[in-house]
Amino acid sequence: MRLGQHSQTILSRGLLTALAILFSVAAQAAMCERAYTIRVTKNFPPYYMTDESGTHSGLEVQFARMVMKAAGCEFRLVIRPWRRALLQLEMGDLDILGVASRTPEREVYSHFSTPYRREVVGLAVRRMDLNREIKSLEDLARMNLSAVYLRGAYHGPNFANFEKTEAHDKAFRPVTTVFDSVIALQKERIDAILTDMIAMSIYFDDQGLDDVLAVHDYVEYENNVHFMLSRKSVSDGEVHMINAAIQQVLANPENPFARWLPK
């Protein structure tokens, strides 16, 4: 009789485990009945690139594909300017946006995934200007230098305060894409670009500009980045599912951000 009870216990546990797995798979399948829309930008190497046929590539695209595959979800990549992407995310017309810093303002309308890499924001300058002693953004105004930055992007809490100052108005102006400003930097029409230092450094190298342009030692901001997921179109359960998929990819040796893991 004791053996029978033991066998029943094992059988019951086995059935419970099987049912848990079944329900988990069913729940994941149900959450992935629709394809997610994921924002990409046309040209922000090494993270985003688009060839003449419209095919998207780059480290962020590769990572997003790996996450969606791990989650078992279909997705569609859509090109959106940064500012428009934020508005569409808020309205629920866009599901996922990558390379995002976490802020209280954005948390009102967006979930944030677990962090998946680091970003470093600093100044791109002409190589001959690398020896300029820049300890703060105010120094650019003091030196009568001009700089640009990506409109709508987050450059850290210090920059948010700096935007309210006269020094900002004197030295800085926003642009819709920083890479279009590289020629202006090269031709000395501007003196600096406040931007992602990793991306810009690789861009200079790929374009054969690293002999004349470089990133300055000054670092404005260093932070973890996340996926933003629209609160209007992505449920809490879906966020948990995508976070689990991110953790799987972070542990994968083929993770394209293995050198820049979050801290």
Word description of this protein:
This is ABC-type amino acid transport substrate-binding protein. Residues 35-263 form the Solute-binding protein family 3/N-terminal domain. Keywords: Signal. Residues 1-29 form the signal peptide. InterPro entries: Solute-binding_3/MltF_N (IPR001638). With 263 residues, the chain is of the alpha/beta class. The chain has three domains: 1-31; 32-118 and 224-260, 3-Layer(aba) Sandwich (D-Maltodextrin-Binding Protein, domain 2), CATH 3.40.190.10; 120-222, 3-Layer(aba) Sandwich (D-Maltodextrin-Binding Protein, domain 2). Helix content is 40%, strand content 25%. It contains ten helices and twelve strands. The chain has helices at residues 2-31, 59-71, 82-91, 104-107, 138-142, 157-162, 166-171, 182-186, 197-206, 236-250, and strands at residues 36-40, 43-44, 48-50, 56-57, 75-79, 96-100, 110-112, 117-126, 147-150, 172-175, 192-196, 213-230. Strands 6, 7, 8, 9, 10, 11 and 12 form a seven-stranded mixed beta sheet that branches. The chain has a three-stranded antiparallel beta sheet with strand order 2-3-4, covered by helices on one side. Helix 2 packs across helix 10. The longest helix is centred in the N-terminal third of the chain and has 30 residues, at 2-31. The radius of gyration is 23 Å and the shape is globular. It starts with a helix and ends in a 13-residue tail after the last helix.
